[in-house]
């Protein structure tokens, strides 16, 4: 189940980009770092929500069915992704 750990970490990075994109949206931005901001926005707006929703559902179902255990999974990362998913649902809808 190494792929779940990898996707959880990638989803966490995308979630950080989502939070950064939301901060850029509410603050004044002077366009000095446009190249980097484009990548942050693509990961944050386009990839973060669908990936986070999918990986949280898949991991939750596998944990409930006892196909995977908490021990090899970083629980703090899963819980952070779930918390950010709730924030994404509030912001998006």
Describe this structure in words.
The chain has about 90 residues and is mostly helical. It has one domain. It is about 80% helix and about 0% strand. It has 3 helices and no strands. It has helices at about 1-25, 35-65, 75-90. Helix 1 (about 1-25) packs across helix 2. The N and C termini lie far apart (about 30 Å).
Task: Give a brief description.
The protein contains 3 helices and no strands. The chain has helices at residues 2-26, 34-64, 75-92.
Write the layout of secondary structure elements.
Layout: H1 2-26, H2 34-64, H3 75-92
Helix pairs in contact: 1-2, 1-3, 2-3
Features:
mainly alpha; 3 helices; 80% helix; elongated; transmembrane; membrane
Percent range for helical residues? Answer: over 70%
Query: What is the H/E order?
Result: HHH
**Average pLDDT reading:** 90
Count of folded domains: 1
**Termini distance?**
32 Å
**Cα-atom Rg, whole angstroms?**
15 Å
Report the portion of residues in β strands: under 5%
Count of runs of 4 or more consecutive helical residues? 3
Shape: elongated
Total beta-strand segments: 0
Structural class determined from secondary elements? mainly alpha
Report the uncertain regions: none
Largest sheet: number of strands, sense, barrel closure: none
């Amino acid at each position: 189940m190494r792929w779940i750990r990898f996707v959880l970490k990638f989803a966490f990075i995308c979630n950080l980009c989502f939070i950064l994109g939301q901060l850029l949206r509410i603050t004044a931005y002077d366009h000095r770092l446009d190249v980097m901001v484009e990548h942050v926005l693509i990961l944050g707006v386009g990839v973060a929500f669908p990936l986070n929703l999918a990986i949280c559902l898949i991991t939750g179902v596998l944990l409930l069915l006892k196909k995977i255990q908490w021990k090899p999974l970083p629980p703090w990362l899963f819980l952070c992704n779930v918390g950010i998913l709730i924030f994404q649902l509030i912001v998006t809808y």
